[in-house]
Write a structure and sequence with these properties.
By secondary structure, this protein is mainly alpha-helical. The chain has helices spanning about 15-25, 35-40, 45-80, 90-95, 100-135, 145-165, 170-185, 185-195, 200-220, 220-225, 235-250, 255-265. The protein is about 75% helix and about 0% strand.
Length: about 270
C-alpha cells in the first residue's frame, strides 16, 4: 500500500525512531510510577512475591500490547478512511465477529478501562483527602470530615474527566500518554526512596513539582521541546527531576536512623 509504513518515521511522520524508543521505555520501565499500581506492591508479603508480580505483569503487558499494535497494522490494510485511530479496534471486531461476540469483546475493553479509572480515582481521592488535607492542612480532621471531603473530591475529578471525554482535545492514546507521563514522574522519588538512604521527603516533593513543570514545558513549548532531540518529554524531565531530588536531599534533613534501618531491613 505504501512503503513509508515500513520505515521511520511512518507514512504520517508521527513516529521517528527516538519517539518509538521513548514509547517502549515509557510503557515498560516507567509503569512503576503509576500510583494506583505502585501502591499494590505494599500489599505483597515479600520481595520474592513482588519480583514474580513484576515479571508476570511485564509479560502480560507485552502480550496484550503486541496484539493491539498488530490491530493497528491490520486496520491500515483492511479498513480504509478511518477518521480516528480510536475506531480501529471496534471496527475490526464488528467486521470479524458476529454482533453478539463483538459486543462482548467491546464491553470487555470498556470494563478494563473502567477498572483502571476506578483504581486511579481511589488513589487520587485518597492523596487529596488523606495525604494533603488530613496530614498537612488540617491534622485534626476527623475520619467523618475526610469521608465527606472524599465524596466532593471524587465528584470534582469525575466532572473533569467527563469534560475531557466530551470535548476530547486529542485521541485516546494522546490523552492517555500525557496522563501516564505525568504519573511516571513518580519513578524518580520511588527509586531514590528505595535505594538511596540519604533521600528525603523534601527532595521527593521538589522532584515531583519540578518534574511536572518540566514535562509541561517540554510538551507545550516548541523552543524547549527541541532540546529533547526527538525523544519523549519524559526523558529530559526525568534527568532534571533526578538532579533536583539529589540536590534538595543533600540540603535537607534525612529521616531518623531508626526509620532508615527499618526500611532497608525489609
Amino acid at each position: 500500500m505504501n512503503e513509508a509504513y515500513l520505515a521511520f518515521p511512518g507514512a504520517n511522520g508521527y513516529m521517528p525512531w527516538a519517539y518509538y524508543v521513548s514509547n517502549i521505555v515509557l510503557w515498560s520501565f516507567f509503569t512503576m510510577g503509576q500510583p494506583h499500581l505502585f501502591t499494590k506492591f505494599f500489599a505483597m508479603k515479600d520481595h520474592k512475591t513482588m519480583f514474580k508480580a513484576i515479571l508476570l505483569g511485564t509479560a502480560g503487558m507485552f502480550f496484550s500490547a503486541t496484539l493491539i499494535e498488530w490491530t493497528g497494522v491490520n486496520g491500515i490494510a483492511t479498513i480504509q478512511n478511518i477518521e480516528k485511530a480510536d475506531q480501529i479496534v471496534p471496527m475490526i471486531l464488528q467486521r470479524g465477529l458476529n454482533p453478539f461476540l463483538a459486543s462482548i469483546f467491546i464491553a470487555g475493553i470498556v470494563a478494563a478501562g473502567m477498572s483502571t479509572i476506578d483504581g486511579i480515582l481511589v488513589t487520587k481521592t485518597g492523596a487529596v483527602t488523606r495525604d494533603i488535607y488530613q496530614k498537612l492542612i488540617n491534622k485534626k480532621a476527623t475520619d467523618e470530615s475526610v469521608m465527606k471531603l472524599s465524596k466532593v473530591v471524587t465528584i470534582l475529578i469525575d466532572i473533569i474527566v467527563i469534560c475531557f471525554g466530551v470535548f476530547q482535545p486529542g485521541s485516546i492514546f494522546e490523552i492517555n500518554l500525557f496522563a501516564f507521563s505525568e504519573m511516571a514522574i513518580f519513578v524518580v522519588p520511588i527509586l531514590f526512596g528505595i535505594y538511596w538512604k540519604k533521600a528525603t521527603a523534601q527532595g521527593a516533593i521538589a522532584a515531583v513539582v519540578v518534574g511536572v513543570i518540566s514535562l509541561l514545558l517540554f510538551t507545550l513549548n516548541p523552543t524547549i521541546k527541541a532540546f529533547a532531540f526527538g525523544f519523549h518529554a519524559l526523558f529530559p524531565t526525568t534527568i532534571i527531576s533526578s538532579i533536583v531530588m539529589v540536590v534538595v536531599s543533600k540540603f535537607t534533613k534525612t529521616p531518623p536512623q531508626e526509620t532508615i534501618e527499618r526500611h532497608f531491613a525489609v
